[in-house]
Design brief:
With 277 residues, the protein is mostly helical. The protein folds into two domains: 34 residues; 211 residues, MetI-like fold (Orthogonal Bundle), CATH 1.10.3720.10. Helices cover 75% and strands 1% of the residues. A two-stranded antiparallel sheet has the order 1-2. A hairpin with a 2-residue loop joins strand 1 and strand 2.
């Protein structure tokens, strides 16, 4: 009897834990979705009540009056260019550190990772002063350059581990056929590293919602991305909760679609990129 109880506990405790964590994750999303169909007056009367009637106008107000569609395109442009830069630089750096027999490669990798150990708040002001003196504020590249710099270290670490997991025989066979290091990289390695590249891209898609640096560096810019666009719904007269929630739902759609379409590659790439062997 005790054995059966222990077996039942071992089976159900993880299931209940996963269920609770899933509910905790989904609750904010469902709450925002429900609020997006309410008027601000309904929301303030009872934030937990279901919508009395569906307010589709919130979505049109977010897209047209709030300009969330334009901000969505701006964010897509900034994040796409940033991810391309991260993947390009991290791939070359990771390959060099893993395969080109660079002296003190482990130490160099450590130095590359050190900046990721500092809180972002501690580097914002020095970074802002540097960008200001270079006259690089309030433009699209004000976001792109720092995003690339912040994403490259972790991406380099993941890709370096992936390159180290590739059998030496595969690369040596290509070199026997007369291929140099660059040709080996392009013709042999790139085709098999697609899942890992997708992993790096998804991990850096969080730049989509970067708020602190965007607010500091783009305060006087007409080029606005999603974080600044959502803040615009909060005015001195109060927050327009219905359109604000509708804007958040619109912003979440690309993220959910991208993850659902690439989740199998994400898991495969994360495993091959994070575990050496």
């Amino acid at each position: 009897m005790n054995i059966n109880r222990e077996t039942t506990a071992i089976v159900w405790i993880p299931r209940v834990t996963v269920l609770l964590l899933t509910l905790l994750t989904l609750f904010p999303l469902l709450f925002v979705l429900m609020t997006s169909f309410k008027s601000t007056q309904q929301f303030l009367q009872n934030i937990w009540a279901l919508p009395e009637r569906i307010e589709w106008f919130n979505y049109s107000k977010a897209l047209i009056d709030g300009g969330i569609g334009r901000y969505l395109l701006n964010s897509t442009y900034v994040v796409s260019i940033s991810i391309i830069g991260i993947v390009l630089f991290a791939s070359l750096a990771g390959y060099a550190l893993a395969r080109l027999r660079i002296p003190k490669a482990e130490l160099l990798m450590l130095f590359i990772l050190i900046p990721t150990m500092f809180p972002s708040e501690s580097i914002i002001m020095p970074f802002y002063i540097m960008m200001s003196k270079l006259r690089l504020l309030n433009e699209a590249y004000t976001l792109i350059f720092p995003f690339i710099g912040w994403g490259v270290p972790t991406a380099t670490f993941i890709l370096r581990n992936f390159f180290q997991s590739i059998p030496n025989e595969l690369l040596e066979a290509a070199k026997v056929d007369g291929a140099n290091d660059m040709l080996v990289f392009v013709k042999v390695i790139v085709p098999i590293m697609i899942p890992t590249l997708l992993t790096v891209a998804i991990l850096n898609f969080g730049l989509w919602g970067e708020l602190l640096w965007t607010t500091v560096s783009m305060s006087a810019s007409v080029f606005r991305t999603i974080p600044l666009g959502i803040i615009a719904f909060q005015t001195q007269m109060g927050t327009d909760w219905g359109p604000l929630s509708a804007a958040i739902c619109i912003v979440m759609v690309p993220l959910v679609v991208i993850f659902l379409c690439s989740q199998k590659y994400f898991v495969r790439g994360l495993t091959s990129g994070a575990v050496k062997g």
